[in-house]
Amino acid sequence: MDVHLPQPKQVRDLLVDLLGRDVTLSPTKPFAPGPDTPASVAVYVNDSLQIRALIACDLPFSAYAGAAIALVPPGAAADAVADGKLTDPLAENLYEVLNIAASTFNVDGSDHLKLHQLHPAGPPLDPMVRIQTLTLGRREDLSVDVAGYGGGLLSIVLV
Questions:
Q1: Which domains occur in the chain, in start order?
Q2: Beta strand pairing status for 114-119 and 23-27?
Q3: What is the pTM of this model?
């Protein structure tokens, strides 16, 4: 079976519903996490536990989405960005966002995916996970702005 690549409208609708705020998306160049660009990476697996997709978020999007879903003040998200890593509560909140985001992959006729693991922004990323985020081909790279919080990058990568 094939994996469904969520379209920007699906992503926007999901984020608007989850975060309860206006969200604007625009296409951008592929996001490449690295030592100087901390990223949160969600790993999605099929029913056989094979990795089939990733969602990589830069630190600003990780912090803003993690704060917005729990109505945490924007300053706490800005502090995490300044510190270069997510706090545990922001990471837990981002996990919820990205866990629910699994629903965007699950359409009729596609592999059923679920969130297997979240690598929150801050600690060095597992090299194998980082390499998979660099996969070209079936991916959607978006600049995302969460009203009242700020903007960041989100990439959906099929592997």
A1: 8-24+36-158 (3.40.1550.10)
A2: unpaired
A3: 0.95
- Residue 11 confidence (pLDDT): 97
Q: Looking at residue 128, what DSSP letter applies? A: H
Q: What is the pLDDT of residues 84-120, one digit of tens each?
A: 999 999 999 999 999 999 999 999 999 999 999 999 9
Token pair for 131: 């390499």
- Distance, first Cα to last Cα, the chain: 13
> Which H or E run includes 62?
helix 59-69
Please answer whether residues 44 and 71 qualify as being in contact, where contact means their C-beta atoms are separated by less than 8 angstroms. no
As a whole number of angstroms, the distance between CA 40 and CA 42 comes to 7
H, E, C per residue of 74-122: HHHHHHHHHHCCCCHHHHHHHHHHHHHHHHHCCCCCECCCEEEEEECCC
